[in-house]
Design brief:
This protein has 14 helices and eleven strands. By secondary structure, it is an alpha+beta fold. It folds into three domains: 80 residues, no CATH class; 164 residues, D-amino Acid Aminotransferase, Chain A, domain 1 (2-Layer Sandwich), CATH 3.30.470.20; 65 residues, ATP-grasp fold, A domain (Dna Ligase, domain 1). The strands form two sheets. Strands 9-8-7-6-5-10-11 form a seven-stranded antiparallel β-sheet. It has a four-stranded antiparallel β-sheet with strand order 1-4-2-3, sandwiched between helices. Strand 5 and strand 6 form a beta hairpin. The two termini are 20 Å apart.
Length: 335
């Protein structure tokens, strides 16, 4: 395919409306001209396979070409997943009941499938003694559709059963109680460590780790208003300020005032070991981002992602020198 043909096809796929809106927003933020920003966005799309969201959250408008070449853009991320993960095996991670069954020891909590087959008797037995539960859609991502329920919500059990069955197929899970140190950051959500493992052609191991921190909602996901900070793989300490998807940065949590930089994650060595062992369970899926909760008794899996989001690992605030995370991936695979 000629460069001209590629450029034409790429241009047809661009979301010009969203790109123009992003250029307007970045003009207000940076003072750079709208025309320059839009033209530069197009350049990054053609040269680095970057979408308008990549351009914004990685602050590519502030980077030179050498720095831009180290960013994992949407196109690069998609190619890594296609290469590393056999789609025939994604179901082991995408179906939450399959995941909870396959990794039962690491999940370590009660759960039950919530569908039209669920009876009042089985639901009552599951809820017995639990102060709160989460409903999760059977498949989904970014925290969409997750709802927290407390004992008062199932005081009328038949009505509660009817309600959750009306929410579509999903599962109910015992709500984990996070380690007190993790709750100091944000008590409204279980703040999870995202640890990415790679079974690479060059080597295998952990590519990166980020702590995802909530900001008032029940979820810590950045698509639900949460934030993230980069974790040092050796010490388990937070290396950077926290950042959210809107580009806001925090050196202290805005709700609790807890310092971000220097915060040390409990049981981090155990969390790493758990992920390194788990990555061999489905070897056909060689790049997995594990979401790990830290409890007083150690790490527990929340889920594993067979198509990891590339947003968190490229927030500009995590790379003050402008060098992105792509060099870390090149230790595992050729890109």
């Amino acid at each position: 395919m000629s460069k001209l043909t590629y450029a034409a096809k790429r241009a047809m796929k661009m979301d010009w409306k969203r790109m123009a809106q992003t250029a307007d927003m970045l003009h207000e933020k940076t003072g750079k001209s709208r025309g320059w920003l839009l033209a530069d966005m197009v350049k990054c799309a053609l040269q680095y396979n970057a979408g308008y969201m990549d351009y914004k959250i990685a602050a590519m408008y502030n980077l030179n070409d050498a720095q831009r070449s180290t960013v994992i853009t949407r196109g690069i991320s998609n190619s890594i997943v296609r290469r590393m993960n056999d789609k025939a095996y994604w179901h082991s991670f995408d179906d939450k009941t399959e995941f909870n069954t396959l990794f039962a020891d690491q999940v370590g909590r009660k759960w039950i499938k919530a569908d039209m087959e669920l009876t009042e008797e089985r639901l009552r037995a599951f809820l017995d003694g639990l102060p709160s539960v989460l409903f999760k859609p059977l498949e989904g991502s970014s925290g969409v559709g997750i709802v927290k329920f407390e004992q008062k919500d199932w005081a009328d059990l038949p009505a509660f059963l009817k309600k959750i069955q009306g929410m579509g197929d999903g599962l109910l899970e015992e709500l984990l109680v996070q380690h007190p140190d993790m709750a100091r950051l944000c008590p409204t959500s279980v703040n999870t460590v995202r640890i990415a493992t790679l079974l690479g052609d060059k080597q295998e191991g952990i590519g990166y780790a980020f702590l995802r921190i909530g900001n008032g909602k029940v979820m810590d996901n950045v698509d639900q208003g949460g934030m993230a900070a980069r974790v040092d793989l050796e010490s388990g300490r937070l290396l950077t300020v926290a950042a959210d998807k809107a580009g806001n940065v925090f050196d202290r949590h805005p709700m609790t005032g807890t310092p971000i930089i220097g915060f040390t994650i409990p049981y981090f060595e155990e969390a790493k070991a758990m992920c390194l062992a788990a990555m061999h369970k489905v070897p056909q899926v060689r790049f997995v981002a594990w979401d790990v909760a830290i409890t007083a008794d150690g790490p527990r899996f929340i889920e594993g992602n067979s198509f990891p989001s590339h947003a968190v690992p490229q927030f500009a605030a995590h790379y003050p020198d402008g060098i992105g995370i792509l060099p870390e991936f090149r230790k595992f695979i050729d890109i």
